[in-house]
Amino acid sequence: MTPEIVILAMIAAFLGLRLYSVLGRRAEHEEEPIQGRFEGRQGQPGAPRVPAPPRTEQRGDGRDDARSRAQQGHGLREMPLASSAVERGLAEIAQADRRFDAGAFMEGARSAYRMILEAFWKGDKAELRQLCDGDVYAGFAAAIDARIEAGETLDNRLIRIEECTFVTAGVDNGYARIGLRFRADIAAVTRSAEGVVIAGSLDDAIEAIDIWTFGRAVNSPDPDWLLEETDEG
Fold first, then answer.
1. What is the full DSSP assignment across 52-113?
2. Rounded to 10 degrees, what is the CA torsion of 147, 150, 153, 156?
3. Which helix (H) or strand (E) element contains residue 185?
4. CA distances from 157 to 122, 147, 190, 208 (A)
5. Of 53, 108, 51, 44, which is closest to residue 116 (Cα–Cα)?
6. Which of 31, 141, 147, 177 lies 20 to 30 angstroms, CA to CA, from 221?
7. SS3 of residue 133 by DSSP
């Protein structure tokens, strides 16, 4: 065997040992259990981790303690900053309706905001009837009819929702209401019957600030909330 062959064999053996050592260490690390970001408190995969709320001292008839349990069980501790009155109102709703989850409600309200605006812009009365109460629907329907009579169409687009925050919340005689403040960027264009732009521009989005109030009976088997009031923010 020539010296060149011996040297090449030694180099190959050395590289082989290095590769084995690297792969071996990687495999050992891969076998270690890693706790996922969303592993639940009971180890259930996919369940969000909810921090335990601070303990509260029970006073009087225990309403403060009940409110704390409602906040813990319905995601109120993870909500964006809100006034103490709003937090109390959300806790009251959670106590009256054990299915209520503030985080899920906010996500649903953001979707409803987009759906209602787009339905109004398109003139889709059937969609609006499912998402709004009678008074709000009547207002939207009248505006759609006036637009159709004038031969105008809207070519509006919701660019983004910049902000969505709780402003009111509470239960009155078994009926829950929640008000949300939306701040959004909207590109608004009005076209004539001939398709000519008579107002607005798709190139320049305008800021829209609205306060929408949603409501539902807490004992209703229907889980859907309806839009029952709209105001400028």
1. PPPP----TTSHHHHHHHHHHHTTGGGSPP--HHHHHHHHHHHHH-TT--HHHHHHHHHHHH
2. -60
3. strand 175-187
4. 11, 17, 11, 12
5. 108
6. 141
7. coil
Q: How many residues does the chain have?
A: 233
Q: Is 26 helix (H, G, I), strand (E, B) or coil?
A: helix
Residue 41: which region, alpha, beta or left (left: phi > 0; alpha: psi -120 to 50)?
Answer: alpha
Contact 191, 159 (CB under 8 A): no
Q: Is 219 exposed, middle or buried (0-12, 13-18, 19+ CB in 10 A)?
A: exposed
**pLDDT tier at 1, thresholds 50, 70, 90:** low
Q: What is the pLDDT of residues 30-78, one digit of tens each?
A: 333 323 322 233 333 332 322 333 333 444 444 444 444 444 444 554 4
Beta carbons within 8 Å of 118's beta carbon, 6+ residues apart = 124, 158
Task: Locate 115 and state its tokens.
Answer: 């759906």
Q: Pick the closest to residue 208 from 159, 167, 168 (CA basis).
A: 159
Sole residue written with tokens 């923010």: 233
The number of beta carbons lying within 10 Å of the beta carbon of residue 93 is 23
pLDDT digits (tens, 9 = 90+) for 147-188: 999 999 999 999 999 999 999 999 999 999 999 999 999 999
- Nearest C-alpha neighbor of 177 from the set 81, 72, 105, 76: 105
The C-alpha atoms of residue 123 and residue 95 are separated, in whole angstroms, by 38
Q: d(Cα 82, Cα 71) in Å, to the nearest integer?
A: 13
